[in-house]
């Protein structure tokens, strides 16, 4: 996919909110990188989300998450230092 010329043209706006919510749900129950010593709803980290959205470049996924935070839908750490991503409200 990285060799595909379209790879560099993918934008955050190409990811639907619903796609992110599905990835967050998968992360909650099947989180691979989150800190599972914490309460389940608070153990999603950005690597979990990116793991469940392999079709999008990581920087695009991060931009999408940050745009959803600006709209009041999500909160959390986007650099990967904490596993505290939460859904504040569904669009
Ligand atoms: Zn951080």
Number of domains: 1
Total number of helices: 3
Rg value: 13 Å
Small ligands present? zinc ion
Briefly say what this structure is.
The chain has 91 residues and is mainly α.
Set out the fold topology.
Layout (H helix, E strand, L loop, with lengths): L16 H14 L15 H6 L6 H13 L3 E2 L10 E2 L4
Antiparallel strand pairs: 1-2
The chain binds zinc ion.
Tell me about this structure.
By secondary structure, the protein is mainly α. It has a single domain (7-87), classed as Arc Repressor Mutant, subunit A (Orthogonal Bundle), CATH 1.10.10. The chain contains three helices and two strands, in the order αααββ. The chain has helices at 17-30, 46-51, 58-70, and strands at 74-75, 86-87. A two-stranded antiparallel ribbon has the order 1-2. It is globular, with a radius of gyration of 13 Å. The structure holds zinc ion. Zinc ion is lined by residues 77, 79, 81-82.
Which descriptors would you attach to this protein?
Arc Repressor Mutant, subunit A; 91 residues; two-stranded antiparallel sheet; 36% helix; 3 helices; globular; binds zinc ion; 2 strands
């Amino acid at each position: 996919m990285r060799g595909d010329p379209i790879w560099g043209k993918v934008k955050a706006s190409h990811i639907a909110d619903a796609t992110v919510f599905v990835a967050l749900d998968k992360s909650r129950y099947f989180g691979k990188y989150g800190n599972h010593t914490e309460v389940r709803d608070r153990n999603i980290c950005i690597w979990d989300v990116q793991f469940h959205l392999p079709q999008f470049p990581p920087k695009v996924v991060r931009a999408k998450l940050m745009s959803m935070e600006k709209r009041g839908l999500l909160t959390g750490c986007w650099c990967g230092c904490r596993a505290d991503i939460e859904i504040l409200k569904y669009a």
